[in-house]
Amino acid sequence: MTVEHESIEFDVLIVGGGPAGLASAIRLMQLAQEKNIELEVALIEKGAEIGTHAISGAILKPQSISELIPDHKEKGCPIEMVVRGDEFYYLTRNKALALPMTPKYMHNTGCYVVSASRLCRWLGNIAEEMGVNIFPGFDGKQVLYGADGRTIVGVRTGDKGLDKDGSPKGNFEPGIDLLAKVTIFAEGARGSLVKSMAEPLGLYAGKQPEVYETGIKEVIQLPEGDTYFSTSRGNDIHVMGYPLGLGTPGGGFIYEMAENKVGIGYLTALCYEDPALDPYDMFIHFKRHPFVAKIIKGGKVVEQGARTVPTGGYYTLPKLAVAGGLMVGACAQLHNTPALKGMHIGIQSGMLAAQAVVDALAEEDVSVNGLQTYVDALEKSWVKAEMWEGRNCAQALAKKGIAKLIHLGAQYITGGRGIVDPMPLEADADTLKPLSAKTDATEEKQGYDGELYVDKLTGVYLSKTIHREDQPSHLIIHDMQVCSEQCYPKFGSPCTVFCPGEVYELELDETTGKAHIKINASNCFHCKTCDVKDPFNNISWTCPEGGEGPGYTMV
């Protein structure tokens, strides 16, 4: 069947309604006003509304939002709390040891505790008021190229109204070709469009492999009355140690929020080696630690979410400018790994991209050379300085035991250079060791009470995740034989373990013993752990029908 795709033209198209994309949109309109020019700017967001797919810790360093919107407080920026002090602990199985110093990267006094979802909704309203055409519920499905096959001319949105076999239903609506002189990609970590451009445009040629951590986060409503934070020295807590120890990188956080709530989360680096390790189980063990359990005692989980975080640092950055396109925020690996934050960098990258786009349009040159001013500006900014200092951090964290501490210490006193510069990175998909009886993460899973300690499926419910059942699966297993003949015998089908939404379900043939993976795509958090960690690169995450997925309001 031949499908006609309607086309709409804009000056600038932004893909993604997170902090980086919205900052791009707002700055574009500010520059248009300053220069008295007309700009048609469109922003598409795969979530049903702006903010419904936004999740982060989140500590926001204020310099970028202060530059973008100097009067952000007066305009009602949804700041949960201002950090008054930091607390940093090493957890043993039963104790919390206060560390004598907090690393300089993690000094957060004066920073904002925010909800990424609420912040994005607020930024979205401002962008819309300024004249940005915002289209929630539209996913970017395909990058459109010019006649040369390398110049980006826009994005095609996904079809709507397909049945499970991909055939049009009665309510079928074909995707729309959104054409633009420049497209800004702000998809978030492991963006599917950026991934599709990687090979044809050589985005990662000569770069170290992308690496990620998977974070599970909850917002917990505490009982009325005094809480730990009523008398604590700090109101942002970071911990390392238990349950991962000093082997696999990772750690937890607890942030004070407004209205007697806390944001709590745990991140597990996807360079782990044990195929039986479950990041969600690590999160529950963390919550049950006596120190943490005391802080959240009597609370109730009101929202949960999960997402991968790019942690590879400066040496993993892709080409940030191509003909007709720019990459900003997490989809461009822009994240300060040692500081455990990236939202401020995403906002700043969006602003710098906007300036480069306006300059390129004025010169009528949207080639790689015409858009290179974005890369140049980023290199001269504090974004480069922050990322340069952490350029070998992920590599050092991946070391074991005392070697980890030696490398981190050397980097700390040498501005990130350390003992070896650059240190090599190994792709997350390549780090698993064959499954054996002696695994590090086969502890008995702990019970759940349905309120403070919830299982995976309850977490999916609390994320308000919704997908239409009768549509093509947006999670693609390319070769089921690889699952049954290679992955299951060697690794025990780790996708059925690491997924925080229990999307992948192991089914064994009673006669042959062969493994088959059932996909429960409706449970998907859009965290993209499977796309990163599958040891055979046999799973691809793609966008489902626009408007589906999580319904975050406070994470």
Number of helices: 15
The overall strand count is 24
Mean pLDDT across the residues is: 96
Helix content: 25-40%
- What count of structural domains? 4
Give the CATH level 1 class of the largest domain.
Answer: Alpha Beta
Would you tell me which CATH topology of the largest domain applies?
FAD/NAD(P)-binding domain
CATH homologous superfamily classification of the largest domain: FAD/NAD(P)-binding domain
CATH architecture of the largest domain: 3-Layer(bba) Sandwich
Overview in brief:
With 555 residues, the chain is an alpha+beta fold. It is built from 15 helices and 24 strands.
Detail the topology: elements first, then pairings.
Blueprint: E1 7-15, H1 19-35, E2 41-45, E3 59-60, H2 62-68, E4 79-82, E5 86-91, E6 96-98, E7 112-114, H3 116-129, E8 133-136, E9 140-145, E10 152-157, E11 160-162, E12 168-173, E13 177-185, H4 192-201, E14 212-221, E15 236-241, E16 250-257, E17 261-269, H5 279-288, H6 290-296, E18 300-310, E19 321-322, E20 325-327, H7 343-363, H8 368-380, H9 382-389, H10 393-397, H11 401-413, H12 456-462, E21 475-477, H13 480-491, H14 495-498, E22 504-508, E23 515-519, H15 529-533, E24 539-541
Helix pairs in contact: 1-3, 1-7, 2-7, 7-8
